[in-house]
Each structure stands twice: as C-alpha cells, then as structure tokens.
Amino acid sequence: MGVFITFEGCEGSGKSTQLQLLKDYLTKLGVDFIFAREPGGTVISEKIRSIILDKSHAEMSDECEALLYASARAQLLNEVIIPALNAGKMVILDRYVDSSLAYQAYARGLGFDFIAKINDFALNGCPPDLTLFLDISPEDAFKRKGGVDESDRLELQGLNFHTKVYEGYLSLAEKFPSRFVKVDCHGEKLQTHEKIINILKEKGYLR
Ligand SMILES: Nc1ncnc2c1ncn2[C@@H]1O[C@H](COP(=O)(O)OP(=O)(O)OP(=O)(O)O)[C@@H](O)[C@H]1O
Ligand SMILES: [Mg+2]
After folding, report:
1. Higher model confidence: residue 3 or residue 148?
2. Would you state the pLDDT for residue 148?
C-alpha cells in the first residue's frame, strides 16, 4: 500500500506554494506520486466542481453544496486514490474531507455529525495517513497578502467566516491527533518546506 497525505489550511495559508515545492522535491528524488486538487481530479469530479463554483448558482443550498463536495470526493477516491494506493504510490491531495468538516460543518454550521456522516458514506472510511495543516490564522494570511480592506464589508465578513474555518481546523487537530500535524507556516516559504520534509522523514514516508 502507498501512503496518503493531505494538505489543509485556510485561504492563502500557502498550500499551493508548499505543494509545488514538495512536488519538485519528490520528482527530483524519483518518488512515485500522484497529486490532485479538490474538488476535482476526475472528469466527473471536475464537472461537479464547475457546478459548485458556478457564480449563477447563488440559490444552491448548503446541504446541496456539502453533498456535491462528497460526490466529487467519492469519485476521486474510487477512480484515482484507491488504485494509486494499491499500486504503492504516494497520493498527495490539496484539500480532502477535513475541508468539508472545517468549511461546511464548522463555518457554515451544518454540524460535524452531518458532514462526517455523508462523507463516511461517500468514502467508506478512507482517512489520510497524514494531514499537514498549514497553521496560520486568516488574519495573518491576509496581512501577508497585503491586508484586509477595513472599509470593505465583504472582506470583513469574509474574515469572520475564515476565522470560523480556522477554528474548525483547530478542533479537527484535537479530534484527530494521530494523523493531524500542525505546521507553523509564519516563516519563509523554504523554512515551511523544510519543516514538511522533516515531518515526512520522521513519519518514515521519505528517506
Ligand atoms: N511563507 C510565505 N511567506 C510569504 N508569502 C507566502 C508564504 N507562503 C505563501 N505565500 C504567498 O501567499 C499567497 C497565498 O499562497 P498560496 O496560494 O500558496 O495559498 P493557498 O493555501 O494555496 O490558498 P488557496 O486556499 O486560496 O488555494 C501567495 O501569494 C504566496 O506566494
Ligand atoms: Mg491553493
């Protein structure tokens, strides 16, 4: 069996940045890995993604959205993740079920049990071996990007929502201590990258 690693964190926490650094590192090392972003990663999942992201779907209910995420994830799991793990590959995902728990369960308020239940059905229990949570508050991430416009009602509302997401992630870290690792990512990009490589080595996933 391969190893299943997911990256989680708030908007702008540096997931894409760190994933690119990790992909370059693994490629140089000759590690057999696959990468996918959520929602997406298969023809069907990308179609579901476009339904979720379509701006004209303003009437979409929170429940519909949560089920669509789980559907896209189920397809990715069956079509891509499980075959890759069975082939002994390292599977790396930009977001997975913890994003649904942080965003839909905690921030949107649909509750942990409901989101966990639909994802348990969709995924038939297939948790990651390791979840790297890029730990930076949305406030600090916004500051790093150049700051939130205080006069912008939507940006301020956004910060409240994203703070709930962040708190959701912290709850998940407490709930799943064996697989959830917090990575302080306030430092330089390469410092965070080094921390991630060290964690993968400590876990025995890299030499
Ligand atoms: N350690 C860092 N120091 C300074 N800037 C950083 C650092 N990490 C990331 N950034 C910058 O912060 C911004 C957001 O990073 P990135 O796109 O990787 O985040 P993300 O978690 O993938 O966001 P999203 O959830 O929106 O996909 C980018 O402009 C990136 O260059
Ligand atoms: Mg990203």
Report:
1. 3
2. 63
Q: Which ligand is nearest to the CA of 7?
A: 1
Contact 78 CB / ligand 1 (< 6 Å)? no
Distance between CA atoms of 151 and 174, rounded to whole angstroms? 35
- Over residues 68-77, the pLDDT tens digits come to 999 999 999 9
15 lines ligand 1 (CB under 6 A): yes
What average pLDDT score do residues 69-90 get? Answer: 98
Quick one: fold of 3-202?
Rossmann fold (3.40.50)
Query: Does residue 21 sit in helix, strand or coil?
Result: helix
pLDDT digits (tens, 9 = 90+) for 22-33: 999 999 999 999
Q: Is pLDDT at 157 greater than 70 in this prediction? A: no
Q: Is 144 in the pocket of ligand 1 (CB under 6 A)?
A: yes
Q: Which ligand is nearest to the CA of 134?
A: 1
Contact criterion met (CB below 8 Å) for 66 and 115: yes
Give the residue, by CA position, lying nearest to ligand 1 atom 14.
12
Report how far ligand 2's centroid is from the alpha carbon of 22 (Å): 14
- Residues in a beta bridge with 180: 131
Whether the pLDDT of residue 124 is over 90: the answer is: no
Structure tokens at 98: 């913890």
Does residue 200 sit in helix, strand or coil?
helix
Q: Identify the residue whose tokens are 């977001």.
A: 95
Neighbours of ion ligand 2 (CB under 5 A): 15-16
